[in-house]
Amino acid sequence: MDSIEKSESEVERSVCGFLREPFAFWSFQLRAGAPDAKRMRTIPRIERLSFTTRDGRSLGGYKLRAVAPWGYLLVAQGNAMLADQIIGDLQFFRDFGLDVYIYDYRGYGLSEGKSRLKALISDYQEIIRALNAQDYRRRFLYGISMGGIILLDAVGITDEYDAAVIDSSPSRISSLGCPEEYDPINHLPTDASGIKIVIGLRDRVVPAAEIEEMAREAQIRGAAVSKHPEFAHPFQDFSFETHRRRFHEVADFLTRWRP
C-alpha cells in the first residue's frame, strides 16, 4: 500500500524546474482568482461535478446538459481561468447538442491538490477515460492555450477521442524548462485528421510564431489549420461577434463527426 501511495503522489512532482514550475502555477492561480457561485445562477441545465483522481484529489467542475446529446465536449481552459468564468459562454456548445464538461485544474478554484504539469496531464487522462465509459456516441475535446498542451500530452496519440480543437497552444514548452517529452508537437497522432488548430494573428499571449511549427506538422498529417487576422487569444477577442465566430468555427469542425 505504501508503494502505491508513493507512486500516485509522484504526479505532483515538478518536471519543469524545482522552483520555476511551482512559481508559475502560483502566479496563474493568483490571476485566476476565486470561484464565484453567483455566475451559475442564471445558467439552465447545469450540474456541479466532483471527480476523484487516483491519488485521492477531488476535482470540481460543471456539466452543461444538452436536451438530446449526440456527444460530449470536454473543455480544458487557459492557465489563468476558472471553470465558472467561462461556463456561461460554453452554453453555445450545449445548445449545439453536446454535453459540456469543464473542471477547475488541480489546485485551482474548486479542485484540491498541487498544480503541476504532470498531475494535470494525468487528471485529464483519467477524466477522458471516465467520460468514454459513458454511452456517448462522439467524444470531443477543446483545448484553450495551456488546455491544448494538456489535452495533447494526455491523449493526443491515442484513439480515446474522435476530434479535438487546439486553440492558441504553443508548439513547444521545452523553452520554458520542461522536458521535450511534454512538447505538444511530439504528441500529434500519425493521422491528425481529427485535429483542428486555431491561430489568432492578433494573439499577444501565444503569438502565431509559437504555433506555426506544430501547425505545419499537423497539417502534413491531415489536420485542419485556420489562421484568423481578427482573432486574439481565446476570451480576449476585441468583440463579441469575433468571439462567437471563433466558437462557430469550433462547432463547424466538430459537425463533421455528427452521427
Q: How far is it from the N-terminal to the C-terminal residue, by CA?
A: 45 Å
The percentage of residues in β strands lies in 15-25%
The third-level CATH topology is Rossmann fold
Domain module tally? 1
Which descriptor suits the 3D outline?
Answer: globular
Poorly predicted tracts of residues: 1-8
Per CATH, which architecture? 3-Layer(aba) Sandwich
Order of helices and strands: HHEEEHHEHEHEEHEH
Write down the Rg: 17 Å
What is the percent of helical residues? 25-40%
Widest sheet: strand ordering: 1-2-4-3-5-6-7-8
Determine the CATH superfamily: Alpha/Beta hydrolase fold, catalytic domain
Q: Characterize the biggest β-sheet.
A: 8 strands, mixed
Written overview of the protein:
The protein is an alpha/beta fold. The chain has 8 helices and 8 strands. It has helices at residues 2-9, 20-32, 83-86, 91-95, 117-132, 146-155, 212-220, 240-254; strands at residues 46-52, 58-64, 71-76, 98-103, 139-144, 163-167, 195-200, 224-228. It has an 8-stranded mixed beta sheet, sandwiched between helices. It starts with a helix and ends in a 5-residue tail after the last helix.
SSE blueprint:
Elements: H1 2-9, H2 20-32, E1 46-52, E2 58-64, E3 71-76, H3 83-86, H4 91-95, E4 98-103, H5 117-132, E5 139-144, H6 146-155, E6 163-167, E7 195-200, H7 212-220, E8 224-228, H8 240-254
Parallel strand pairs: 3-4, 3-5, 5-6, 6-7, 7-8
Antiparallel strand pairs: 1-2, 2-4
Helix pairs in contact: 5-6
